[in-house]
Amino acid sequence: MDDSFQPDALLNAASSSGEAAEEIGNEEEDEELITPAEVLLKMKRAWQNEAAAPCILPHQYEILEILVDQIDGMDENLARVKDKTQLKVSIHRAELQRINYLTSDYMRIRLKKIEGNVRRIMTQHNERLRQGKPPLLSEQELRFAEKYAKAEAQLLGKSVLGFLPTPVQKIPHPEEDADLSSVYLQVLEDNVENVPLPDYTDPTAEIIVSLERDSIHLIPFAPIRDHLENDRVRLL
Amino acid sequence: MDAEKCEFLAGDESIEIIPKLNADEIHLISADVGPFEAGVGTRVPLWLALLLRKKHYCTIVTPNWLSPDELRRYLVAETENAGLTELPNYFFEIAHILVREAHEDLLESDLVKTLVQDLWDRREAKLRTSIVKFLSQKNVSHARLDYVQPTEVVAARPTLAACKQIARLVANIHDSQQSQT
Fold first, then answer.
1. What fold characterizes domain B7-61?
2. pLDDT tens across A68-87, in order?
3. What is its biological role (chain A) (predicted)?
4. Looking at CA atoms only, how far is residue A138 from chain B in angstroms?
5. pLDDT tens-digit profile of B66-106?
6. Residues 6 or more apart from B47 whose CB is under 8 A from it?
7. Cα B102 from chain centroid (whole Å)
8. What backbone phi and psi angles, to 5 degrees, belong to A105?
9. Architecture in CATH of B64-181
10. Helix, strand and coil percent figures for chain B, each rounded to 5
11. Contact present, A113 and A56 (Cβ < 8 Å)
């Protein structure tokens, strides 16, 4: 057996990420220590929500960064092992691959959404910042969005818009209609506030729907947006 | 979401295996597994069970709910119940993975396959009739579907596009009514 790769080496990795988690916890005013397993769970939920949501959700890069640190730490530990054929090594590798998939797919989905409607998303991001809400995009994503918007403008200008008369030289700016979308959701907590839904028969009326714990609903997206951002419900 | 992502998530559900080797406890990021002792059953995440099985280090124990008897009971309940009945988490995903990757370990895997298929058909028929009913009216924008399984949600996803169209039409109607008055 190779002594350099024992559980305590891994315990170190786990505890160092525990510290990282704690730092984040402090930033978010509760000082509870988050275990790596909990971080992973949060990431899974964020990924699921992002994949199911009709629009881009506020970013969860704190969680992502902790996990990426964790992956790097584990990678280093694994690289130090001399006997690569150990069962333990392949198990850890397999787990890393799963987590890697989770984090990269999360980023991939978000970048795709940004590419889909880059200008609208940047306006929304700035609006949220003005209102003091948590930011929609991370710094890296914002940089990407700006670059993408610029490239898109240049391409459109060269290929199409340059040949059109000035009054119609506009870059398409599709309306975001996530407000009209519906979603499947599951309620995660007890005592989630009732949600007012638009009454289709009367534009001025509302229908109140109660959300019991664990129940699953097909429901318009707009009224439950706040619940989603506060982790009271999850999308399916 | 798509079916593959559902299966990925189902990979984290725990399942019982009988290891064929001895090994110490392993500290994974998601949880600690082991220690493994040959011949003594233990629970691990499904993805790990599949990995070990591929290397011939374990056999997978068929979950209780995937036995023909239990499945028949679910089928009866599904027939008697007008709504959907409650199933274990990730029922269809796990059944599908096990039948595909580990059918030698399953008891009566062909029978299990047919029963699961029957169950799926019955539930799908219910879901489809209720979705058609839901989409052919324009008064309600909300439906409750307790006990629906993740794969079924994926299968019912196209409904969302239809809901959006309906919402848009209704919004247009309201707009035109308001401009008339």
1. Ribosomal Protein L9; domain 1 (3.40.5)
2. 988 888 888 888 887 777 88
3. The GINS complex plays an essential role in the initiation of DNA replication.
4. 23
5. 999 999 999 999 999 888 888 998 999 999 999 998 888 88
6. A94, A95, A98, B11, B12
7. 17
8. -65, -35
9. Up-down Bundle (1.20)
10. 55, 10, 35
11. yes
